[in-house]
């Protein structure tokens, strides 16, 4: 956890620089227009040039990051920051200044777009929300410190706007050094390119442990989102508790699970009928949802969190230990031979096609060992943690069951990744194939004294204990080429990176799950920009001036410009504790819950501002009401609607198109930002403050409705599970409409 947190903090320096730049240009433009004698149009262009640069670079940042990686783009962002700072420090005329502001916008655009993506791909699911709130915190901290610097400089007799803007180059040097020498590449991106050894080493650094086999398996499986997926349900309990008299189905319908202790075995019995973790749930149906117009995906995601154990999303009773359920089990001593191609190197990497060299070229083989899948060959578990499928068939561990065997890995957030081997009769005899299973505990276990995997020394499950688990079952990313092509079973296995290397295509963007996620991401970005934050920021100095703050400061010998800078610094200081509260609850209450709780407060604050500007309550009362409403609006906005849209956009897209999809959402964000920035003065002159805040209040109402009906809860869920949910939910919803 500490490694992921430090990496996230280092990455968010890019957002710190964005906040720093936003504050310094707001202060410097006061002196720029005096020295260069600029008109209003050129003054506005200087400020907006960074927005233009951010918008331009965003159009290609996602595609390039999917091609060359996340880390090189963050390095490029730091270089843009540094170069723009140097040029602004020099700036002999307005044209050079505009060029510098454009380069600065390039750096801002890359940081705002890719830092949330990078954090989501490196953070554990249990604290992903907390770490992804850091960009909001560091951005506000950068604005606060920059306003403090500007305030101090404004008190002097000679104030240099070039120095104000050029200071940016110094912290950008630190950002450059960290991106080059400290930040690792995203392990998910490395896996998508087949660079398994590097991905494993990065995960070991981020998680602070050697055994990362479970998460490595998850990252590989994340490349296969969008296939045929079914939602099933299992009753999981000790093998001796589900006797033959309780089992109407044959042995082959059971999935065997084994704990780390020798002799501790469990069985998963498929439940017929509809799972509670389904679009057609026992609480309602897809055709007639409990809430009209609600997206079934919201209900599907919500059913997961409703059935979490009492400990919440941080840890599930179902799978309390993070790691393989089987890799610690001692294999039976017999004369069976290893497949000669199944060479494992404990602690060094995964199966190599080229011998013993630890090079990326030798790690193009699948994460699973390349082995034959014919009936005559056994899949034998190694004693190390190096193999994903540390299982075997026809061994004493499976008690002679010729049905299905499972290898399983904890993947965080109460989820478990498992595989089952299914045999079936075909024209050419018996064939087999893997199925991937994402397991999640549905309800309270029959007894809470034990768990599916008991740690040494823990309670042994009592009589009658069982666990009900929902499962997403689908074709795994690691598959047999012959099985897929319907040819006789052979030894070759296809690594998913061979397909991922082709890059995102338009067809991938048009998949039902991706389209549904894009609707959520684009919709929430548009509504956030029109929810009033820019208008309130614009109006804050005027409100505080009416409250008499400027008079108080002038009595202290502080000029009007300096007073404005100090007020802005105070406003950003108020945001920091509120963001800290959001960081605390982001992974506890969840993204959706925070939005649905905080947006009504924004609506009330905006309505109060409208009333205060329509009716005459007197100067003092108006100033007090306005000041309180502005403070409440700021503090509430940064707790929910500020950071969460970017967090959601970094979570809901599949790995293979995550970069381009986030770039699309970010492009919408910047375009809406430009529209709001340029239309605000026009709206103020035409309909006044009351009209502007009234429109913002209406947009916040629409936002709440949109979030309630369309935005699912993603807290604590692995990214791969989230995208699988979008895929299966969208396909089932589409299928139900055609019935």
Describe the structure.
- By secondary structure, the chain is of the alpha+beta class.
- The chain is 53% helix and 9% strand.
- The chain contains 25 helices and 9 strands.
- It has helices at 2-11, 13-36, 40-68, 70-90, 94-122, 128-132, 134-154, 161-166, 169-181, 187-192, 196-207, 213-221, 296-306, 481-484, 497-500, 506-509, 512-529, 533-546, 549-555, 560-585, 591-614, 619-637, 644-649, 658-710, 719-737; strands at 229-238, 255-258, 265-270, 404-412, 415-426, 429-441, 467-474, 479-480, 493-494.
- Strand 4 and strand 5 (415-426) form a beta hairpin.
- The longest helix is centred in the last third of the chain and has 53 residues, at 658-710.
- It is globular and about 85 Å long.
- Mean pLDDT is 75; it is low at 242-250, 258-264, 278-288, 309-408, 444-463 and 480-493.
List its traits.
transmembrane, transmembrane transporter activity, membrane, phosphoprotein, two-stranded antiparallel sheet, 739 residues, alpha+beta, transport
